[in-house]
Design brief:
It contains 33 helices and no strands. With about 1250 residues, it is mainly alpha-helical. Helix 2 crosses helix 7, helix 23 runs antiparallel to helix 24 and helix 25 packs antiparallel against helix 26. The longest helix has about 60 residues.
Length: about 1250
Amino acid sequence: MANASPDLDNAEAQRQLNNNNRPISSGLWDTECTSSKLFECSRIRALADERDAVQKKTFTKWVNSHLSRVSCRIADLYNDLRDGYMLTRLLEVLSGELLPRPTRGRMRIHCLENVDKALQFLKEQRVHLENVGSHDIVDGNHRLTLGLIWTIILRFQIQVIKIETEDNRETRSAKDALLLWCQMKTAGYSEVNIQNFTTCWRDGLAFNALIHRHRPDLIEFNKLTRSNATHNLQQAFNIAEQSLGLTKLLDPEDVNTENPDEKSIITYVVSYYHYFSKMKALIVEGKRVGKVLENCVEAEKIVNRYEGLASDLLDWIEKTIAVISNQKFANSLTGVQQQLQAFTTYCTIEKPIKFQEKGNLEVLLFTIQSKLRANNQKPYVPHDGKLISDINKAWERLEKAEHERGVALRKELIRQEKLELLAQRFDHKTTMRQAWLNENQRLVSQDNFGYDLPAVEAAMKKHEAIEADIASYEDRIGVVVELAGEMEAEGYYDIRRILARKENILGQWGLLKELVVGRKARLEQNLALQKTFQDMVYMIDWMEDTQAQLLSQDFGKHLLEVDDLLQTHSLQEADISVQAERVETLNSAALKFTTLEGSYQPCDPQVICNRVNHVSTCLEELKQLADKRHEDLEESRQLWAFFQELEESAVWIREKSSILGAQGYGKDVTSVLKLLQKHKTLAGELLAHRSLLQILSEQSFGAAGIQDHILEVKADWKNLEDQAALRLHHLQEALNASQFSTETDDLLAWLQDAYRLVSSEDFGHDEYSTRSLLKKHRDVSDAVDKHRSHVVALRQHLGALPTQYRDQEVRGAVLAEQLYTEVVEVAVLRQQWLHDALAVYRMFSEVNACELWIDEKEQWLDKMEVPERLEDVEVVAHRFESLDQEMNSLMGRILDVNQIVQQLLDGGHPSSTEVRGCQDHLNSRYWSYNLTHNLSPLTHRQKDHLDSVLRLQNYLLECTEIKSQIQDKRKAIDATQYAGSDLGGVLALQRRLSTMEGALSVLEPKLMHLQVHVEWEELKRTLQGCEDSLMVAGRLQSFIQDLDSFLTWLVQTQTSAASDQLPNTLEEAEKLINKHAALKEEIGRLPIDNEAPLPHAALQQWLQKLDVGWNKLLEMWESRREVLVQAHIFHLFLRDVKQAESFLNNQESALALVEVPTTVETVEAALRKHKDFTTTMELNLHRIKAVIEAGESLISQNNIYSDRIRQRVDALASSLTDPASSSHSKSRNRERAQTSVLPNFR
């Protein structure tokens, strides 16, 4: 009955699918139906649509609730399942298995493939699908899609529900089981009576009762009423979604209807069933976990004492290690001795006590393990760090730290003794250094330097000797510092006193060096001051000698002498400046000694100031004398220089005045320009001398003769300037007149040349020459137009000339204007004549060209003969074809000639008669030629004859080319002879022949109208023979190659089949069997065909050997297969033996841990446990016997592992008898315990 229920549910779903898929009979809509039937059908259809809408919404929410686990979602049930992807993901979530990966793509074929994979999976799950195909889902069939989802819900959600009743233990179907579960859970609720999955759920009390039964804290069921169905449904749905996490598959309006959908309600109620069933399982599991936790807490209390003692001991070890690992010792000999004594006390008193505690801890751990083992509990393993091995390691680290502590203390004691010896040596040396420093400080404190330069220099030498003695003593001070540094580095306990004495010695040493440096500085100051005083004495002597030279009264008697005296005085002033800087340096150096910092003064400052003032006074007097003498010498030089410049200016003025009076004004433009250039040079010289005279006139000297001489020079200068201005004016007038005359002559010469050109009677002898003359005439006309401005400018220039030059040049200007007018008139006439001549020559040229073409064509047509060569025939035909085009072009040219003639006649050309006659002659020639040759029958016959000859020549040429191609192909085929011994060469020749066949297929259509059939047939026969020979050779080479490959494969396969490898495990045995089976499939795919005829006897021998090797391979494969099958059976037997042995070992362990009970409860529990044990033994006993029988069967079949099988069978049989006897003995012991305990209990 249980197995039949899923099939019934699936059958019901398939009936629904079939009913949904069955089309509505067309008779319902027949016009003869009554109105009642029509109403009934429409009502049924509306209810069906309403039911489908509710199912679609419910099933969509149900699908999304499961797809949310993989982050997927659908919006439309009919459309989103069409590609098969979401359907595959839904089945993977529900089944927990991986389906074949969906095919990527959105085409219909891809969708059909994906849906087929899903439907195939359902068939593998024994879900019967009738009349449902992948095309129905892909096409979006509503009824079939809903039926498919309902089938999936039945299989994966409802089919798993099985409830057994207490009376007859009957197993109901899934739907009835779900209904019975709902009735059982709502049995205590008087207002709830669930008899179906439709109307009994309308009021919502059933949903609230299910929730209240399992979670009464969420709903106050007593406040609910049957009349408020919408509120009840909404409350139940909201609480289930918010508090229980159940997806809200239904809405109140979906349930509170006249006919609720049964499938939608079942789908939603199933979610309640699965949630509350899971909740119950979790509660039971929680109780079991609580019991396990109690046992763990009790076990933890047992080991707390051990862990506490272990922690205390480890803490003491770590603290002791931290203390004795501290290498900070007392910094004195006494303190180190006390620490060594304390360490000895620790080693002899404190450590032995802890060692005894360590031994007690090991005993305690052994006691704990024994107790846990006696209580059949898991042996206690201390945490990491609290194991006995960890404690031993910590104890070893403690002993290592003790050893290091003892060694360090002894080293520290030796170091302190060494420091005491160093301190004694330091005290002795510092006492000696102290006395020497005091004596030398007293010596360098005395200042007895003397009061002159020799005495100070002697004191300096004595001080240098003292410095050398002190510098040699510095190494002895360094020894003291080194001793103090060594003690400080070693950490001497009384280092403060040592450092204080060292600092005292260093302080006195530094004071001594400061005193030495100060005394040397004072000596250097005295020495520098005495040297400064000595330099001052030398400077005063030099200034007295120089002062005597500056008092001289010699100022010179002419300009050169005054310059020599000034140069000498400049040298003296330079010496005074240098010496003044030296005096400043000496004074500054001397005054520094008056402002020295400190109390020491090498000399009285007043004495120094007096000497500085005396030197400065002497220097100032010397400077004043030098300045006065320089002024006197400059005045003398100015006077003598003025006399000389004034005399030179008077001479220059007289010279230039004579030059201006003697020169003329020139005769032409060149001479006038040269005179103007000279005059400009003279004007520059006048400008330079004007500034010089102005400077001279500003000089004021007291002598009366000097002023009179200056006035005379000024008067001469005024006359010279007036004379220069007048000459410049005359030169400008002469230049203008010369330029006018030159321009007039040039213009007349050019106009005469232009007149000769424009008055020429040469109009050319042909078109080219006339066109060239016309171009030259245009250039001349342009030049004439450009010279109009020159003529006008010449008239204006004439009016600007002075009167004396104007009368001379007026005749030339008038002549130039008249000649220019004549040139313009003649140029206009000549241009008109040239245009007329050009038109006539152009007309004559066109007429001659047309007549020449007509003569040429007439001569060609009269003498034309049809040639024999094809090239010549094509040339003649081309000329015939172009004749009409050339005639049209000639017609256009004749029309142009007629137009030109008409223009000449209209313009009254002097040669009108000749032009008219030429035109008539040309027109008559053209029309005569046109009538004679274009309309002549002879011309048409020549054209037809030419066309026939051209066609014949083309035919002959084509025949020749085809024959040549056939001969070439024949030679190529004859050269294609196979002489190799490999398949590649044969294939290459076949490709070449295939290429030739393609080329011949192109030639064959051309042979239909050509007479080359004999050559063509012979070529085809040759080609066919070559193809046949190559085909035979190719088959032979291909067979040899296949034979070689097959022999290689045969050798490798025989090697693989002859392998003696035996598997060591069941997996290896299965792998080798599969590999051997694959080898058999490979052998089956390679059949041997020995019936093909072969041309060589050697190949027949190879095939005979191949048959022998093939038969041998089959025998080897069968032999190897038998070995592998036996090995596989043996490993299967070993697997079953191991399972049986494992079971027997577990049973033995359970029997070994059983103790004799002491109370009634423990006796009853032991009896129940032993009963279970006996039942388990009975259930597994037949399996163990089957394993033994299988082993005996393998031995009787002479399996290759018979010896090992015999050993395992005997061992398993002996193990099987021991647990049975032990079980009987334990059972008797429990019965005796029960009989002994019960009287005591009574």
